[in-house]
Amino acid sequence: MTQVRNVAVIVGSLREASLSRKIALALGRMAPENLKLDIVEIGNLPFYNEDLEAEAPAEWTAFRETIKAADAVLFVTPEYNRSFPGALKNAIDVGSRPYGQAVWSGKPVAVASTSMGALGGFGANHHLRQSLSFFDMPLLQQPEAYFGATHTYFDEAGEVQVESTRALMKTFIDAFGAWVEKVLRD
Fold first, then answer.
1. Is 2 helix (H, G, I), strand (E, B) or coil?
2. CA 13 to each of CA 43, 71, 75, 99, 136: distance values in angstroms, whole numbers, following the listed order
3. Contact at 8 Å (CB) between 184 and 109?
4. pLDDT, tens digit, 9 for 90 and up, residues 131-166
């Protein structure tokens, strides 16, 4: 019997119908049986301010508990100005504090980036990877997931209509499933 691993999915775009969210939902539908993907919303997180730690906002506490309870993390982010969005940076900061109590540490992680351009969010992907390395998160290195021209992927129902993209997504999420098992078993 396969153990189901809970994966916290953090979508960098706050827009309800964002292409990053559509990618995350499609990955969830394609996930191998050992992964259960759940999107963790970040739009309601107050900006990180250490002065608030004495009485941390309820949204911070709930977010931290959700990430702490997850077995793994998947980030799906658009590229904004060659980096990832500020809301995602804020979520990372909220989860990294108080100092020495980061909820990210040691969790297997993967990064998928999206863009309407041809490079598929390459800059955001690598900038995010750099930030995550601080938390000693075992990062899936291959296959890398850069989804370019994402505005052409979906039909009206939100299903991926491009076969080569569907194949890449399936390869990526299957590799992540195997990675999560390897990291958590070792």
1. coil
2. 9, 23, 11, 26, 24
3. no
4. 998 899 999 999 999 998 888 889 988 899 989 999
- For residue 30, count other CB atoms closer than 10 A to its CB: 17
Number of domains in the chain: 1
Consecutive H or E run containing 78: strand 72-78
Q: Which of 32, 73, 26, 69 is nearest to 169 (CA)?
A: 26
Could you give the CA distance from residue 55 to residue 52 in angstroms, rounded to a whole number?
6
CA 168 vs CA 36, 87, 160: distances in Å? 19, 27, 11
CA distances from 131 to 6, 84, 126, 136, 158 (A): 22, 10, 9, 10, 31
Q: For residue 140, what are the domain limits?
A: 5-185
- Select from 126, 137, 136 the least CA-distant residue to 180: 137
Q: In the structure encoding, which two tokens stand for residue 9, read together?
A: 């999915």
Amino acid identity, position 169 = M
DSSP 47: P
User: What is the domain-level CATH number for residue 111?
Assistant: 3.40.50.360
pTM exceeds 0.85, yes or no? yes
Span 39-81, pLDDT tens digits: 999 999 999 999 999 999 999 999 999 999 999 999 999 999 8
- Let me know how long the chain is: 186
Whole-Å CA distances, 52 to 21, 40, 66: 30, 22, 20
